[in-house]
Design a protein that fits this description.
Distance between the termini of chain A: 60 Å
Structural class of chain A: mainly alpha
CATH topology of the largest domain in chain A: Rna Polymerase Sigma Factor, Chain: A
Strand content of chain B: under 5%
Distance between the termini of chain B: 90 Å
Largest sheet of chain A: none
Helix content of chain B: over 70%
Strand content of chain A: under 5%
CATH superfamily of the largest domain in chain A: RNA polymerase sigma factor, region 2, helix turn helix motif
Oligomer: heterodimer
Helix content of chain A: over 70%
Number of helices of chain A: 10
Largest interface: A-B, 54 and 38 residues
Order of helices and strands of chain A: HHHHHHHHHH
Largest sheet of chain B: none
Shape of chain B: elongated
């Protein structure tokens, strides 16, 4: 009931903006700023969150005439946020600006522990999580933008193939194929990291 | 050590926990003000109307021109004493081939 009212309110605000009341966009910005930041935070580096979220809202504003109001404003905005993050990575890969940070022995140890089940308990510790995040960043930075996004959405955020396809604007078959390739590459990368640790 | 699909499934939760960690997003009032400034600075856009609406808008703009054209053609027909039957008969007598081609193409009666 409340969601319905919210959706109606959003549609009404969008109508006002389209009628020329630009300042009404501020209420959408206040309402969904945190939501968009939550999505963006998962996909781009911390220092890029503000700029990317800014870009999301500018794109949303420019795309308002295409908003039909049927599926609700929030999923529509989520889709714009995910696609903006995808474009961010595509641009970064194109300009070859992706940091390929090197990992240390601690990271290899973290992976060994995770594989043996020991790191699961340690994961509440900030330090351990940070190491895990660094390993993930290291692996994700070695994947193409498409596979990176699919891996994040399907494997790490547990979206269904259908949901991920809707967010990215791709077909479900495309998401499935890319998801399979991305997991295979992630496995290869982690294997390489693990083997490097064994050799040392 | 080679990591299998099973290993990947097993460490999924650990990786997910690590993935979801991190500081809260730093968006505040200043950020919102900056976005609104940007949006206000965007060139005002024409909302693309539906096809039907656009068609009618263009069609109504052409109405005066169409009226003038009809008026001119009407006056021309009256002043030049144009009779379609006569022109057709003339065409048949003077250019029988052209008349046949015109008939085949469905032009004329």
């Amino acid at each position: 009931m409340r969601e319905n009212e919210d959706a109606k309110g959003d549609v009404e605000i969008v109508g006002r903006i389209l009628d020329g009341e630009t300042d009404a966009f501020a209420s959408l910005l206040s309402k969904y700023g945190g939501y968009v930041a939550g999505i963006v935070k998962r996909h781009v580096p911390y220092e890029e969150i503000e700029d990317t979220a800014h870009e999301v809202f500018v794109r949303a504003y420019e795309s308002l005439p295409t908003f039909k109001g049927t599926g609700g404003f929030q999923p529509w905005l989520a889709s714009i946020a995910v696609r903006t993050c995808f474009d961010y990575w595509r641009a970064r890969y194109r300009s070859k600006e992706v940091p390929l940070s090197a990992l240390t022995e601690r990271h290899q140890e973290w992976l060994e522990n995770a594989l043996s089940g020991e790191a699961v308990g340690m994961c509440s510790e900030t330090e351990s999580r940070r190491e895990g995040k660094e390993i993930l960043d290291w692996a994700l930075n070695r994947l193409p933008a498409e596979e990176r996004m699919v891996l994040e959405l399907v494997y790490l955020q547990e979206y269904s193939v259908k949901e991920a396809a809707a967010l990215l604007g791709w077909t479900a078959a495309n998401v499935k194929v890319r998801s399979f390739r991305a997991r295979r590459k992630l496995r290869a990368l982690l294997s390489r990291l693990s083997e490097r640790g064994e050799r040392q | 050590m080679k990591i299998t699909e099973e290993d990947l499934k097993r460490i999924r939760k650990t990786l997910r926990d690590a993935y979801g960690s991190g500081d809260a997003a730093p968006l505040g009032g200043a950020w919102r003000a900056e976005v609104m400034d940007h949006i206000r600075g965007l060139p005002s856009r024409e909302i693309p109307a539906a096809f039907g609406e656009q068609f009618y808008r263009i069609a109504w703009r052409l109405v005066p021109a169409a009226c003038i054209l009809i008026l001119i053609l009407g006056i021309t027909l009256f002043t030049t004493e144009f009779f379609p039957e006569y022109e057709l008969a003339k065409q048949f007598i003077e250019h029988p081939t052209a008349y046949t081609v015109a008939r085949l193409l469905g032009v004329g009666v």
